[in-house]
Design a protein that fits this description.
Structural class: alpha/beta
Number of domains: 2
Order of helices and strands: EHEHEHEHEHEHEHHHEEEEEEEHHHEHEE
CATH architecture of the largest domain: 2-Layer Sandwich
Radius of gyration: 21 Å
CATH superfamily of the largest domain: Dihydrodipicolinate Reductase, domain 2
Helix content: 25-40%
Number of helices: 13
Number of strands: 17
Largest sheet: 9 strands, mixed
CATH topology of the largest domain: Dihydrodipicolinate Reductase, domain 2
Bound molecules: nicotinamide-adenine-dinucleotide
Strand content: 15-25%
Distance between the termini: 35 Å
Oligomer: single chain
CATH class of the largest domain: Alpha Beta
Shape: globular
């Protein structure tokens, strides 16, 4: 089993979740970290026992003992930094959403192919056992003709930087320059990618949608005058073959229950039974003319499932999956970058439709998408100019 030496760029909130996961993977060594905030970086390196600290990512990327780099920056820095990483000859794992715009995500995907580097995007929900079963059932025709699905995610009131002030969430989540968009990107990416995976990554044809920012903002909150992105996005997408997907994703809404995601087929339906889509799956069908509803018992199945297919431990989450592939423990991994790109496409369709006030086609999303990537960044260490 080959050791994979990883470097982290961005030692903020999410990097901690990444470190918890790397600690559980025996053949990963996080050997370097980079952040433009020196105090934060040094405290982080001490806490996680990482020896090499850099404020300049280019100095870090020059090291020839780094195999792969984990980018934990905000959305509009994903493309510039992922390009720097892959052009420096390293594999790249990057936070979600893939980028600030569809065209930027596409550039990331094409660059990974051009430089033959493994690009993976943090799309947690596709690794859950209930997602796996749902995909298997759709593929095996257990649901019959699948004609409609719903992607849902909501919080009663949890706008980052507002209802959950820093340091729990940085203000960059609601700042257009860094995030580009709000809830539809931040949380929607998990639910939409999960649905697209279950549906077999269908080909998008057209989308209509709207985005909203309606709830009042308490002026005493730190991000009160910084809310520049949508708190809610709603869309209706049509895929090749007539399949439809409706989407609702919100950080905040005066509503008690928006239900959960589902997949509807002519022979049966699947419903996630928790709002986040993270757990619970119900199969709804008909047996001998009687309607039946049954729940997946994830815990009861776990041991036997892993015994029968020991490789499943490499499919526990996207970091484990990417590392196992890089170290040669598995010969195939989930193409999270492709799925993230398809997720970006439908999301951008909603933003574009909202802006134009009409339905848009997949071709229009391709041709009208504009890069939102940060090309130059002022830091106390000088101006970083990105080669895009
Ligand atoms: N916070 C979460 O719970 C969470 C969960 C899942 C995914 N994400 C995603 O992770 C990304 C980062 O979110 P976060 O909450 O960790 O942000 P954060 O603001 O806590 O951390 C980002 C860090 O990047 C550093 N940085 C900025 N530019 C840099 C550069 N050029 N070189 C080195 N460091 C630089 C900042 O100083 C900061 O420490 C976002 O895309 C977000 O969508 C966050």
């Amino acid at each position: 089993m080959k050791d994979i030496r990883v470097a982290i760029i961005g030692t903020g909130v999410v990097s901690r979740q990444h470190m918890e996961r790397y600690r559980k993977i025996p053949n990963v060594k996080v050997i370097a970290a980079c952040d433009i905030n020196k105090g934060k970086l040094e405290a982080w390196c001490k806490e996680w026992d990482v020896e090499n600290a850099y404020t300049d990512f280019r100095a870090m990327l020059q090291r020839d003992d780094i195999d792969a780099v984990d980018v934990c920056l905000h959305n509009n820095l994903h493309l510039p930094m992922a390009l720097e990483v892959m052009k420096a000859g390293k594999h790249c794992y990057c936070e979600k959403p893939m980028a600030g715009s569809y065209i930027d995500a596409k550039t990331m995907y094409e660059t990974s192919k051009k430089y033959n580097k493994e690009l993976s995007i943090h799309l947690d929900f596709i690794f859950h056992p209930q997602t796996r079963l749902a995909r298997e059932m759709v593929e095996a025709d257990d649901l019959g003709h699948v004609y409609h699905a719903r992607s849902v995610g909501y919080r009663r009131k949890m706008r980052p930087g507002l209802d959950v002030p820093p340091p729990a969430f940085s203000m960059d989540f609601i700042t257009k320059k860094y995030a580009e968009h709000g809830a539809l990107y931040d949380m929607g990416v998990y639910h939409i990618s999960q649905m697209l995976y279950i549906l077999g990554a269908p080909e998008l044809e057209r989308v209509s949608g709207s985005v909203y920012q309606e709830l009042p903002i308490d002026p005493r909150l730190p991000g009160a005058n910084r809310m520049e992105v949508e708190e809610m996005g709603v869309g209706f997408a049509k895929y090749k073959g007539g399949l439809t997907l409706d989407i609702i994703e919100t950080w905040a809404i005066h509503m008690d229950d928006l239900g959960t995601g589902f997949v509807a087929g002519s022979k049966g339906g699947l419903r996630f039974t928790r709002n986040s889509g993270q757990s619970g799956l119900k199969f709804i069908t008909e047996v001998r003319g009687r309607t039946i509803e049954s729940d997946l018992q994830v815990a009861a199945n776990a041991s036997a499932e892993t015994f029968v297919n020991p490789d499943l431990r490499f499919f526990a989450d996207d970091q484990a999956n990417w590392i196992a592939y890089l170290s040669g423990e598995i010969s195939q991994r989930y193409d999270t970058a492709w799925l993230a790109l398809q997720t970006m496409k439908v999301s951008e369709g909603i933003f574009l439709s909202s802006k134009l006030g009409r339905e848009v086609t997949a071709d229009e999303i391709e041709s009208l998408s504009v890069s939102s990537a940060i090309r130059s960044q002022e830091t106390e260490w000088g101006t970083f100019r990105y080669d895009i």
